[in-house]
Amino acid sequence: MAQENDIMFEDYFPSMVESMGADRFIAELCYGFCLLMDHAKGLITFESLKRNTWLLGVQDLGDEELFCMLKEGDLDGDGALNQKEFCVLMCTLSLGSMNNSR
């Protein structure tokens, strides 16, 4: 279990990949992206992330923390996450939590 800024989370990605296989796991990540995205823009925006914080169990996060979440994954600097950026971010966070637990 990893801890970041008093938010506790357990990384289930390794066991999910093992039980589902890589292709199904990526499909589930893409489904997660679709749940969080602004459907008109096809991106996870600040507004869509804020609107869906309850899905992530982080409804108590403030605006600054949500902006930081977006900024961490925003590889092209447009202020939002496309599907590829989201998947890369999720996998990077998973690898980071595995490295921090050792």
UniProtKB/TrEMBL annotation:
The EF-hand domain sits at 61-96
Entry's Gene3D superfamilies? EF-hand (1.10.238.10)
Q: Which keywords does this chain's UniProt record carry? A: Calcium
- Cited Pfam families: EF-hand_8 (PF13833)
Molecular function GO terms recorded: calcium ion binding
Q: Which SUPFAM superfamilies match?
A: EF-hand
Q: InterPro entries annotated for this entry?
A: EF-hand-dom_pair (IPR011992), EF_Hand_1_Ca_BS (IPR018247), EF_hand_dom (IPR002048), KIC/PBP1/KRP1 (IPR044205)
Q: Which PANTHER family did the record assign?
A: CALCIUM-BINDING PROTEIN KIC, CALCIUM-BINDING PROTEIN PBP1-LIKE
What's the protein here called? Answer: Calcium-binding protein PBP1-like
Q: What species was this sequence derived from? A: Nelumbo nucifera
